[in-house]
Target: Alpha-L-glutamate ligase
Amino acid sequence: MRIYILSRNENLYSTKRLLEEATAKGWEVKVIDYLKCTIEIMKGELLVNYEGKLLPIPDAIIPRIGASKTFYGAAMVRHFEMQDVFSTTGNLALTRSRDKLRSLQVLSKNDVDLPRTVFASNKSNAKDVIALSGGAPLVLKILEGTQGVGVVLVDSKKAAKSVLDAFYGMDVNLLVQEYIEEANGTDIRAFIVDNEVVGAMKRQGAEGDFRSNLHQGGSAVAYKLNRKEKATAIAAARAMGLGVCGVDMIPSKRGPLVMEVNSSPGLEGIEKSTNINIAQKIMDYIEKNIKPKSSNTKKIKRKKDSIGA
Ligand SMILES: Nc1ncnc2c1ncn2[C@@H]1O[C@H](COP(=O)(O)OP(=O)(O)OP(=O)(O)O)[C@@H](O)[C@H]1O
Ligand SMILES: [Mg+2]
Ligand SMILES: [Mg+2]
Model:
């Protein structure tokens, strides 16, 4: 069986762990820098070129697409899916998950609880937006932000108005959200593989920070989900259509609220805090979903060499 891990850096913890566990299964596995892949499209032929050669069609891919490379990464994933390759992350689900607004729309439609959220264009009146979102304190989120960058807590109505005016003036797309004070800088990350929770951790933000992101200095410990948290995490993963994902929830008076669903969740925090072999669970998921294709072991050739034609 041939597996490609689509990752830009084979020294990352997650990439190394996936490589290790795929190798442990006895599979032929290769880390492919998806930005160095060239897509070739002809009638009835969808090919991938890599390092100057045609890339053999694998049995499965494990996309690890960086947030800033979503467009190209998703196109690559789509190309492999069109070659009938199994992907642990579908291209549509990947694209959806990278848009915070679209994700919240999908989650809401599937009855997943989340913080009250308002989205408006920069032509709108900041005062109205603040009123609709329930008034200060509020959380503002730049749509394309990640790792906690671009997430701002504003305490007063006055501050909210001036920050909103500033963002709208710069034509930045942002979400305005009710602030869940009782979360107190903690959040829960449930790691889902194949609609099951395979591990969970609780993250606590750095002293004085309302954001729990590890990249912002937060710390993580293993956590046992209660029934409601477990059901919410699974419902969110299902709604997003993600086979492998990290569902982030914050505790609130009305139960767990989903913040976002990450389609390339890191393995380091969750494996180290829980001591669970998450990478192996991902391999088991692949194993369950594919039958090795004997044709794939054949050398791939273009139907007719039409280069230059
Ligand atoms: N409405 C809210 N109320 C309280 N805390 C919040 C709220 N929104 C976000 N937070 C805190 O800020 C953190 C970062 O927010 P969010 O996850 O939306 O941003 P992100 O930049 O996408 O981060 P990630 O790296 O997880 O993708 C959350 O994990 C949570 O701890
Ligand atoms: Mg995010
Ligand atoms: Mg987050």
User: Anything to note?
Assistant: The first helix runs from residue 13 to 24. The pocket of magnesium ion (ligand 3) is lined by residues 248, 259-260 (CB under 6 Å). The CA atoms of residues 113 and 257 lie 5 Å apart.
